[in-house]
């Protein structure tokens, strides 16, 4: 659900609060350096970067590290977004990603994927009568 809010500009960042006259400042609450929008909260804020760190396939959140390749995380984001779009009965989709690996997996023929269960599931979801 958070992804849907973030993508649709519904996350109440300080920038959004200021736009709605609910705040007097749009400065980032965590680092006090720049406008607090969704991109800053999730990626650009120095404090957020210290919370979310990725190194050699390990994802660290608040000091706890687990092995989780970034590609896997990005595929799950696509999966959850497709599931949410389906539940909301959206039929016209634009899928955007900055990961060439995700694009490559989504464009591959399903029979080439063999045992990659998540990628196969994504192909099945994309086979629905979407307007992509």
From TrEMBL:
Domain RNase H type-1: 67-110
InterPro entries documented for this protein: RNaseH_domain, RVT-Znf
Pfam family, one: zf-RVT
Name listed for the protein in its UniProt record: RNase H type-1 domain-containing protein
Domain Reverse transcriptase zinc-binding: 1-52
């Amino acid at each position: 659900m958070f992804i849907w809010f973030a993508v649709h500009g519904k996350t109440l960042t300080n920038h959004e609060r200021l736009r709605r006259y609910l705040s007097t400042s749009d400065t980032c609450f965590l680092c006090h350096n720049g406008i607090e929008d969704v991109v800053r909260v999730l990626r650009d804020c120095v404090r957020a970067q210290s919370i979310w760190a990725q190194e050699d396939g390990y994802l660290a959140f608040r000091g706890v590290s687990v092995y989780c390749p970034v590609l896997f995380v990005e595929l799950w984001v696509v999966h959850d977004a497709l599931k949410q779009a389906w539940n909301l009965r959206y039929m016209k989709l634009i899928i955007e990603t900055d990961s060439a690996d995700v694009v490559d997996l989504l464009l591959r023929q399903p029979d080439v994927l063999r045992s990659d269960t998540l990628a196969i599931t994504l192909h099945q979801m994309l086979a629905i009568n979407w307007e992509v």
